[in-house]
Amino acid sequence: MTDNLKTRREGTALQSMTKYIDLLVVLSVIGEIFFFPSWHNFSGCVMTVIVWLIFRIFFFKKKIMLEHPFSFLAFSSIFLASFIPLPATLIESKPITYGFQNPYDTFFYQTLIFIVASLAFYAAVYKKRRGNNSIQRTLYTLNFFETEASTLWILGLIGLLARIKSLEVVNEVQYGDAGNKFLNGLTYLQYAPIIMLFPTLSGLPYNKLRSNLVVIYASFTFVLSFAANSRQQMIYPIFTVLLLFILYLLKDNISIFSLLSPWKIGTIIFLIFFGLGFLSDISLAMLANRKIRNDVSRSELLDNTIETMQNDKLMEKLRNTSIEVQDNVFSYSRGWDETYLNNFMINRYGNARIIDQTLYYANKIGYGNKKMQKSFYEKTVAIYPLPFLSLIGITIDKEELEYSPGDKLYFTGTHTPSALGGFRVTSLVGDGLATFGYWCFPIVFVLLFVSFTLMDSLVLFKNGAIVFSTLGLINIFGFLGIFRNSISSIVPLAYILRGFWQQCFIFWILVFFIKLLQIPKKNRR
């Protein structure tokens, strides 16, 4: 009876969340039509309703979240790009089409690319029989689903040292700098000890002293993230803990109301709103010092950022300047402009103006542009390491490819000499149409389907239970950001051809040597 009660509570919690989001969508649509009545904005409302209904009916289910947590997070980042704009712009007293120049195209193609992503995710997760594929079985034999507390601490130390070492690098890591690029690829390991806060996820028994040490350690990684002058790094530890906590609640059938009283939940919500303002101030201070990021050490950069935050007059000026910038968007014909949402965290996942802008340039240069195709081919070849390319007789200068697909799209459309090297973001549909034309939709389907399948390999089904790989848990926030609304088709392709395999191999090597160097338990006295 107790188990049934827990199940009902968990089901009720998900159902309640669904109802709240339903209400949010309805109120957002009503508010948009009332305050900003236009057919352009109405089409944005239609997009929001369609993507939410698809997500709600087919994917917002506990079974999918538990059996496919990492691919679900990756798919959710695609969903958020279509869902966030309507309520977020309304809260900021803006229309959903704020700064848009081709709204009908934007909402139509973004809805279409989401449907394609939904079909890919559906094909990956809806299977007749739950079982383990060959990759899952291989990872199981390589101990990806087992760990020890000492191994997690050592992995965390490796990631922490990699982070500290990267802070010593004054300039950004360049092509050919294999050492620092390798270290940058290890920094996510600094969050390994955090999974020990959730015993049923890590498979380790609860230990109060260890949990207290992990909390202190996690707080240190949060403070250290400021030194990188990267907003992504700043929110990484926060969202890692949050996502692990949500997965823990789902796996253990725990209702958050059984852990926290209503007043505590209210306090947390208040602190979150307060924290968003605080994080926004940190973001402004980081941006104010970004122009010197390549000229000073990371310790000096951190000192300058702290000094900026302590200067009340300067911070007030930065806030006012930020508001003025948000209120002054300009036409794409005048240059690149990503201005959309004020809050940097929400803007990171829900900036629909990026989609509108990339479609503007895609229309300008023509779909299936030859220059974009050539760039895509070169970027594809550059995914592989230079020693491998030399071995098979391919010569390529990766330094000439130090630009993003967004840069290439902008350069092709404007011929602006300084465009390449700015590392502008892009969108899956804008870049896809510019590069492949309408073939981008089946291509994106295949790329996402394979990517989701690889991510699902980090989950094992054993004796009726669900076991999460240590690698997947450590990098859980990375999955939420991997397909957010700033990527091109090269991102899932790079994950398929190299990213997944390289991360697994390096993780296996590290764990193998850690276990090899550890004193066997039988010999410990």
Short descriptors:
525 residues; mainly alpha; two-stranded antiparallel sheet; 26 helices; 2 strands
Can you offer a commentary on this structure?
The chain is mainly alpha-helical and 525 residues long. It folds into two domains: 2-137 and 351-511, no CATH class; 144-323, no CATH class. The chain contains 26 helices and two strands. It has helices spanning 2-35, 39-59, 62-67, 69-83, 85-91, 103-125, 134-141, 149-167, 178-184, 199-202, 208-225, 231-251, 256-259, 262-289, 298-310, 312-326, 344-350, 352-365, 370-381, 386-391, 405-414, 428-436, 440-456, 470-474, 476-482, 490-517; strands at 459-462, 465-468. A two-stranded antiparallel sheet has the order 1-2. Strand 1 (459-462) and strand 2 form a beta hairpin. Helix 2 packs antiparallel against helix 4 and helix 4 (69-83) crosses helix 25 (476-482).
Please outline the helices and strands:
Blueprint: H1 2-35, H2 39-59, H3 62-67, H4 69-83, H5 85-91, H6 103-125, H7 134-141, H8 149-167, H9 178-184, H10 199-202, H11 208-225, H12 231-251, H13 256-259, H14 262-289, H15 298-310, H16 312-326, H17 344-350, H18 352-365, H19 370-381, H20 386-391, H21 405-414, H22 428-436, H23 440-456, E1 459-462, E2 465-468, H24 470-474, H25 476-482, H26 490-517
Antiparallel strand pairs: 1-2
